[in-house]
Design brief:
heterodimer; A: 163 residues; mainly alpha; 6 helices; globular; B: 299 residues; alpha+beta; Thrombin, subunit H; 6-stranded antiparallel β-barrel; 4 helices
Amino acid sequence: MIIFIIILSLLLENIMSNLIPMGTFFNPLFSIVALVIIYPYFNNDDLRFIKFCAVIGLIYDIIFTNTLFLNMIVFIVVGLTIKLINIILSNNFINVMVISFISIVIYLILTYLILVIIGYKTFDFNYLFSTISKSLLSNIIYSFVIYIITDKISKKHKILKID
Amino acid sequence: MEKNCKVYYNVNGDYMRRRQNYKKKYWLILVFLGIIVGLGILYKTVNDNRNLTKIEGLIKDTGVFINKIAYAPFGFIKNKIHETQLKNEMYDKYLELKQKSDNYNLLEAKRQELEYQLKEMQKVLDLNQILSKESYLNATVINRNIGVWYDTITIDKGSKNGIKLDMPVIVNEGLIGRITKTSNFSSTVKLLTSDDITDKISVKIKNRDDYILGLLSNYDSTNKTFIVEGLDQNVDIETGSLITTTGLGDYFPSGIIIGKVKQVRTDNFDLAKIVEVESAVNFAQINYVTVLKREVVQE
């Protein structure tokens, strides 16, 4: 199930980025949403989850952004955030949407700040804010849809996950 | 005895507290150093000048190949929709082209005459090499700005197709960027819209029969215009004037269109003019590109 969600999300992120023009209200970040969805399937094995986040981040770095280690580090931080929020919140579709929202905001702010610090980009608060707002809608919808689908599959096939 | 023990306890307690403080400080220094080293490594890896390693290239090519297969049916449907839209606009285009074709013979004769004159001049000046002999390579866009911040696209041609670093990339409407990374079967194009402050492009603005030189410094994402700086306060620039590359610098050959002058204003100190340039390229939706393979030809 974990591998299925990750591969589906990575492929869909690529397809959507090609179909939808850049700068519209649909900035796909489905791989971040996938981390939120897969967390319950690790059944509190947090170390394995963080290692998995690092691997996905590294793949994302190499295939999509050519920025070795940047996404790996940010994905680990996002993974830790997901783990911490899951201690407080239970696993249902509303909470999944809330966690996706927080994860996307953290991912975007963190990558932007790192890129600003290393001189790759210049800081512009309005640009950051507009990019975050453009990224939220499509990803929250995706988190809802993928949660419903995977939840039904896991119940049907009795795949163990924490609720 | 009791007093002595108390003194000893106090001394020992101070010693332990100091040791813990030292430990905390060491940890803080280590974390600080770790962050600096980490940022240094990231600076090196994010940098455009880094070449992809063989393993990276292999993983990237495999990933890009899988993505290409997954995108193929969606791309097919998208192309079909686009084709239908084009068919609807076909009659208007036909009328426009017919008008242009009436002038074709005239233009062809003029081109041949200019070519003849150029050859004669080269003979007179004894020029035995031409710098800007270009060949073209068409490519399809397979990834667009994934990860949001990078302003890059990935194309389906790589070093095996003869693509090298820093080659200029254009579309029908003008210049869009340059190649920054290549693997065997894919390449990354950095778009002109990225706000990399180290890249400035030398450009010329057509002003009646003369050219004015300037530097294309950055992209204003709010107004969707490029900014040209380094212009004298006293020159007159008309809106709508064409802006092309000069060929000065390492990356772009001469004469590639960038856009048209949208607005001319003076800088904050009233010392120089700043030109806002509107590109005809729709950077949000680039599907096919052309890579200019620049060669030096001996004649």
